[in-house]
């Protein structure tokens, strides 16, 4: 349980006091909720893997779903993305700061792989509220800016919505009244040949067409998970049979990679073994899984030791269900 501070803030107070308190919490990996122009955000340091884990755990969000980030000003964008297409420049000029999230190819080596689900793209926006911009200005880092709700829950447009879900679970909730648009930002991917709208929110398809012309709407597109297809998970409740399950695969004369916990003392010949975390600190599994899988295409089978279905384990097991098969 965390002691949650509640702060009601007015426009006058914002101008008098730069929110250094919120920025400090975020930089240190704590979690703050504040109003943006669209909905209330859950925010933390986008550069710290442990902080990213907190957001997945709080939202019970599948690790296959990347998290978007906020930046302070347009000039920062070049620090985080490989290129800024001309189409994106037009959208940025029209809608930043504002309710448009844009997906770019990310620069490598900056963000934890867990943030982008091991993908090579990243979603970025500049929120258009004084409180949000001041926090970003003081923090001087990119911050996660996702909706302050349990995944699949209603959009949080007032502080009470956040309090109901996250009181005594996050460090600070800033009450700035109801948000302006009362709906999510629109999301557009500019890395595709024809830009694709992945979520319709505060900005309509027609408005975007006026700015950039041709655009596709692809609301059902899922994040690409380019990992080996032959992935199997030994459920946490069946770990006593871990060795037995592995030996069945070793009989097939195939290249096998085993991802196991620090606690697992089983050893196997003719297989590569990697300790990918510890059950004493389950976030370690979530942080390490994407970097390992991205380098594991040479194996016929990957066998993964499962994790307990609680905390970050909920997010991790949701990922496992999408990329592999649980062994009974």
How are the elements arranged and paired?
Elements: E1 5-8, H1 11-16, H2 20-27, E2 32-35, E3 40-45, H3 49-59, E4 69-70, H4 86-95, E5 100-105, E6 121-125, H5 130-139, E7 143-147, H6 159-166, E8 172-175, E9 186-189, E10 196-199, H7 205-212, E11 216-217, E12 231-234, H8 242-250, E13 256-261, E14 272-277, H9 283-293, E15 301-305, H10 312-323, E16 325-326
Parallel strand pairs: 1-8, 2-8, 4-6, 5-9, 10-11, 12-15, 12-16, 13-14, 13-15
Antiparallel strand pairs: 2-3, 3-7, 4-7, 5-6, 9-10
Task: Briefly say what this structure is.
Helices cover 28% and strands 21% of the residues. By secondary structure, the chain is α/β, with parallel strands linked by helices.
Task: Please state the CA-atom Rg, rounded to the nearest Å.
Answer: 21 Å
Classification by helices and strands: alpha/beta
Q: What is the name of the CATH architecture of the largest domain? A: Alpha-Beta Complex
The first-to-last residue Cα distance is 35 Å
CATH level-3 fold name of the largest domain: DHBP synthase
Compute the number of strand runs.
16
- In what order do the strands lie side by side in the largest sheet? 1-8-2-3-7-4-6-5-9-10-11
Task: Give a written overview of the molecule.
- The chain has ten helices and 16 strands.
- With 328 residues, the protein is α/β, with parallel strands linked by helices.
- The protein has an eleven-stranded mixed sheet, sandwiched between helices. Strands 14-13-15-12-16 form a five-stranded parallel sheet, with helices on both faces.
- Helix 2 packs across helix 5 (130-139) and helix 3 crosses helix 10.
- The longest helix is centred in the last third of the chain and has 12 residues, at 312-323.
- It is globular.
- 43% of the residues are buried.
- The mean pLDDT is 95.
């Amino acid at each position: 349980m965390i002691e949650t501070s509640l702060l009601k803030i007015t426009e006058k107070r914002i101008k008098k006091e730069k929110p250094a308190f919120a920025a400090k919490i975020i930089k240190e990996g704590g979690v703050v909720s504040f109003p943006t122009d669209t909905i209330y955000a859950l925010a933390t340091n986008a550069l710290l893997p442990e902080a990213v884990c907190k957001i997945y755990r709080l939202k019970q969000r599948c690790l296959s779903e990347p998290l978007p980030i906020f930046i302070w000003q347009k000039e920062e964008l070049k620090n985080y993305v490989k290129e800024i297409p001309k189409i994106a420049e037009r959208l940025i000029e029209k809608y930043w700061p504002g309710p448009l999230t844009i997906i770019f190819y990310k620069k490598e080596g900056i963000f934890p792989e867990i943030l982008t689900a091991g993908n090579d793209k990243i979603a970025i926006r500049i929120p258009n509220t004084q409180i949000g911009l001041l926090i970003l200005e003081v923090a001087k880092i990119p911050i996660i800016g996702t909706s302050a709700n349990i995944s699949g829950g209603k959009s949080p447009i007032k502080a009470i919505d956040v309090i109901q879900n996250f009181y005594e679970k996050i460090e600070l909730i800033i009450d700035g009244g109801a948000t302006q648009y009362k709906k999510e930002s629109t999301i557009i991917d500019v890395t595709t040949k024809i830009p694709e709208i992945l979520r319709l929110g505060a900005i309509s398809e027609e408005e975007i067409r006026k700015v950039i012309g041709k655009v596709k709407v692809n609301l059902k597109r899922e994040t690409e998970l380019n990992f080996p297809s032959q992935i199997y998970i030994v459920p946490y409740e069946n770990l006593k049979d871990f060795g037995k399950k592995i030996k069945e695969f070793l009989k097939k004369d195939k290249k096998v990679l085993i991802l196991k916990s620090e606690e697992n003392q089983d050893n196997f010949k003719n297989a590569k073994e990697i300790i990918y975390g510890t059950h004493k600190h389950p976030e370690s599994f979530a942080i390490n899984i994407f970097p390992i899988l991205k380098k594991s295409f040479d194996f016929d089978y990957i066998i993964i030791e499962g994790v307990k279905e609680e905390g970050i384990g909920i997010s991790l097991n949701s990922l496992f269900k999408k990329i592999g098969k649980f062994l009974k």
